Amino acid sequence: MKIKTLTAALACALPVTGAFAAALDRSGQSVSAFLQPNNYAEASISILAPTVEGREAGTSTTTREIDDMAKDYVFGAAAIKVQPTSNFSFGILYDQPFGADAKYEGQNIFVSDSTNTILGADQLAAIGAARVESEFNNLTAAQIVGAALNAQGVDLTSAAGQAQYAATLAAYNAGGATADTINTAVRAAIAQQVAAGISGVNALLGTGATDVKVKTENLSFLFGFQPTENWNFYAGPVFQQLEGRVSLRGQAYSLYNGYDATIGKENGWGWLAGMAYQIPEIALKASVTYRSEIDYDANVIESIPTLPALALLGSSGGAAAAAIAAASGQTEITTPQSVNLDLQSGIMANTVAFAQIRWVDWSNFSIRPYKFGLVSEAVGPLVGRPDGFNLVEYSEDQISANVGVGRKLNDLWSGSVSVGWDSGAGNPVSTLGPTEGYWNVGLGVQYSPAPNYFVQAGAKYFWLGDAQAQTGAQSGGDEYVAEFEDNTAIAYGLKLGYRF
Asked: Backbone phi, then psi, for 396, in 5-degree steps?
């Protein structure tokens, strides 16, 4: 086979190019199908089977093991490209670019059990003591004495009760042992009320396990202009649909233990643009593609059963809880912009080398559901976050690369091998996706029973980067609640391609 026909014989590298990338990145958002010659269509499916295990660490008071929390993830892609003239082309690409599927199990700080409290024991003790002193200091001498006599069962509406009250108040104002005894008794009574309030709040905590599922679907509409055989300029709108849900459970999330959020199917629009250069005679092809951010004003359905816990902060906390319960608003979500660079060149007869490089702007990505954010602003000063904190955020941009070699073995069979690397999106990372980047190796095979169609299969093995996992309240700092090490994943893919 001549070198210039290799592009057709090795239509793409592997059908699992993205599979497991930093943050929520999954498909890799390739436009390679649109850059195929003439009329072309393809459909593919990929299956990701990760194993992500760890243990409690950092600020956790226990060091229990954490079972595999990553679920298998299945996603598909399809494309059609039409070349009505030598200078113009049109294509539609479908993929599922961003997603997550995880659930914690077993006994750990991400699963609720009967020992969970709204805050750690030391924090609750400190808050309880502060609340007792605050309430006691707000009482006048008359109120303190009245509370003490009420606790003894004295009827303060009777003449005898009024006389006892006047005598006791005089003795209290004189100080000494009587005042100390009364103060101790009133503080104890307040402490009982505060303890009952804390117990009631603890009863509001959620049951079950931390669980997250995110899915996006993209339709990219591409219009291409080819002024010469070598150049291809393309652009078009992108329609994206986003949906997801998250449940936070366990001691790790304190006040948010029991929090649920559901994002229904939300629609957004963005755009992409790019250009490609090729020299068919040597199977050289290079392309660069930019995809814009896509903005949403999402209606997130939130449930925060522990809102009454804000009353532990004092009267202002109780007012804040009531205001948050009655509040409503939209949540701003922006899926990130990205740049893909694809390179390919013949290096010898029947052999091509390829490279795919991707950048994703995860450092500017965050999700702060509306009521979640209001609660975070109320409690943020307690954890050093006076402006509140996000449910999810990432500290660094993602850079990934996939390089390999493809070779035609005979008229029916072709194969490829590849090596991939992903930088991750920062460490510590969110507890909802506790890995940082990867290394991988991949193998692909292509069977072409006829010149106009092929079947392609591939697999990749991933060594996932070790990570420290932190909650939203810890994001932006060095604190973390768990660590995940020595994890792996396997991805499988199957693709059908057809030229017409």
From this structure: -135, 155
Spatial distance between the Cα atoms of 5 and 3, rounded to a whole number of angstroms: 5
> Rounded to an integer, what distance in angstroms lies between the CA atom of residue 136 and that of residue 128?
12
Instruction: Give the whole-angstrom CA distance, residue 373 versus residue 376.
Output: 5
Provide the whole-model pTM: 0.89
For residues 21 and 147, membership in a common domain is answered with no
Q: Answer yes or no: is 119 within a domain.
A: no
Residue 342 in any domain: the answer is: yes
Tens digit of pLDDT for each residue in 317-372? 788 899 999 999 999 999 999 999 999 999 998 899 999 999 999 999 999 999 99
Max Cα-Cα span within the chain? 114
Tokens at 37, concatenated: 């010659």
Give the three-state DSSP class for 190: helix
Domain membership of residue 260 (yes or no) is yes
Shared domain check, 303 and 161: no
Rounded Cα–Cα distance for residues 107 and 68 (Å): 12
Q: Residue type at 326?
A: A
Find how far residue 77's CA is from the centre of its chain.
22
Query: What per-residue string of b and e applies to 335-344 under the rule 16 or more CB within 10 Å gives b?
Result: bbbbebebeb
CA proximity to 100, closest of 209, 31, 22? 22
Tell me the pLDDT tens digit for each residue of 60-115.
Answer: 999 999 999 999 989 899 999 999 999 999 999 999 999 999 999 999 999 999 88
Residue 228 is encoded by which pair of tokens?
């010469």
Alpha-carbon distance of 483 to 65, in angstroms, equals: 10
Listed residue (456, 440, 445) closest to 401, CA to CA:
440
Structural domain harbouring 174:
127-197
- The confidence band for 10, taking pLDDT boundaries of 50, 70 and 90, is low
